Amino acid sequence: MSGDYHRIRTLLLGVEQLRLEKIDLAVQRSDARFERLPETLAESIEVANSTRGASRLARALSESTAESLELAVQKRPGAIVQAVFPIIGPAIRRALSEALRAMAQDLDQALQETLSLRALRWRLECLRTGIPYASVALRHRLHYQVEHLFLIRRESGLLLDHLCRHDRPGVDVDAIAGMLTAIEQFVQDSVASGEEGGLGGATVGDYRLLLSHGPCLRLAAFVSGVPPSNLGRRLDELNETLHTLREQHGEEQVNLPAGALADLEELKEVDPVRRRTSGHYFVGALVASILVAMLVWSWMAVGWSRQVGTIRNDLDALPGFALLSIESEGRGALMINGLLDPAGQDPRSVLRSLHPGVRTDWRLRPYVSSDPEVVVRRARQQLALPHGVSTELDEAGTLHLRGSVPFAMWYGLDRRPPAVEGVRGLETGGLDYPGMTHVDALIGEIESIRIDFAGGVSAAVADELHLRALVASLQALQRQAHRSGLKIHVRTYGFTDEPGPLGINRQLRLRRAEWLGEAIRSRMNESIDIDVSMDTLSVRFHGRCRAANAQVMSTPLGPPNRRPD
């Protein structure tokens, strides 16, 4: 049965089965061809390039490649920038460096010759002949010649073409090309960084060697004389032209133009058209007058600038003055902004004495200076110290005073010294007043005298001598006080021993102090200010304590009812 079934299926489906097998085989062949498409396409492009079909292939792919690149720039500009940056970056840097180098060279040469005698002579020639100054300067300065020009293949160092002047002896051009290639390779390997680095120029004997580097070609020029700064740019332009010809016609058709040397030199004489007029001498005199006026003005401007610097230094050296700004308002006039301490030295008087011909507009604001000299001056002003008193400010801010002052000032400084900005402390141990030694001796003598009592308030007979001595010392002290400008005040004290009731002893001390005060007052030739102490200790002296004593206080002359604290 199975054999019959197979024959029947073959008869019915044999043709369709055969057709399906052919279709399957075609599909398999297509898949294999698509899998081998990258390798086949690369081989086809290589074959096209090797059989000089690159131009046709380039024309076929140019439109698609341009559209693809345009879409890639629109969709992924960052990736395109990163791809071309290694190429564009070095080219931009090289162009900028060459432009800046040429500009610096031209600027340096222009500054060197601006006021030179040669430049003045050229300007006089311009006025005399009517020729522009640039043409005259070009005719006199650009004396150079391109002696040899080499065209070298960059990769191999093979000499492609050479031009030289007819009046120059022949040289071994192949050896020179090889030498330049070797030097360039040495510089590239040892000194330069990156593929774009290389030798840009050198000095060979009396010649100046200029090089222009391209992707495939290198130009080398041996120049005699002083070439202009833009000769290197002209050499680069010629190199770019040769690269364009190479891309269009191939390397075999690239040669140096016959007029390349003349194009690089451009030594064209300017035909002088002399225009003699009767005003030549007048023009020369006018130019000379202008030059003299410019020199005088420059000298005066430099002098004024130096004077402003001197004024600035003088003001900076003044204690108590801080210079904020100084602006010139024309020669001989200044506007000065600063801070001035009232105790500092007045900068206006200093400037008038040192620079009397300068007009000044002052803008001053007050401030407190911490300069030691100003602090001492401020203290002398506030304390009204006499000229004989010396002052010294230490590092801690303490002001030491030494000398003789009136008693009222000495008393005020010793008791209640005023506050001075910048002074942290006041040391008055070195101060005294007239008669201070005598006054201190009399006060010490008075306070050492003790009037003893036998009992009650009757003084002992022997203490009458002490009382007379006490009164005599008080009278001497009062005379000295008048001479020294001070007023004395006496306070009497009474003393008792410990035994006895407290109230009785207190009354007894008070009566003894009052007795001593009345005894002194009755024996004094002049009135004296005496009061009685209401607060006295029981025992004041060693030994016997039944006594009375007087204490002296000195104050400045004042109202009669004034009492010391």
Write structural notes for this entry:
The protein is α+β, with helices and mostly antiparallel strands and 565 residues long. The chain folds into 5 domains: 2-69, no CATH class; 142-265, Beta-Lactamase; 282-366; 372-432, 2-Layer Sandwich (Histidine-containing Protein, Chain: A); 436-556, 60s Ribosomal Protein L30, Chain: A. It is 52% helix and 19% strand. It has helices at residues 2-35, 37-50, 54-75, 77-113, 117-129, 133-141, 173-190, 231-249, 260-265, 280-316, 347-354, 372-383, 407-415, 436-448, 464-484, 502-523; strands at residues 144-153, 159-164, 201-204, 207-213, 217-225, 321-328, 333-340, 359-366, 390-393, 398-404, 425-432, 450-455, 458-459, 486-494, 529-532, 547-556. The strands form 4 sheets. Strands 2-1-5-4-3 form a 5-stranded antiparallel sheet. Strands 13-12-16-14-15 form a 5-stranded mixed sheet, sandwiched between helices. A 3-stranded mixed sheet has the order 6-7-8, covered by helices on one side. The radius of gyration is 57 Å and the shape is elongated. Residues 267-279, 536-543 and 560-565 have low confidence and may be disordered. It comes from Montanilutibacter psychrotolerans. This is OmpA family protein. Keywords: Membrane, Transmembrane, Transmembrane helix. The chain crosses the membrane at residues 281-302.
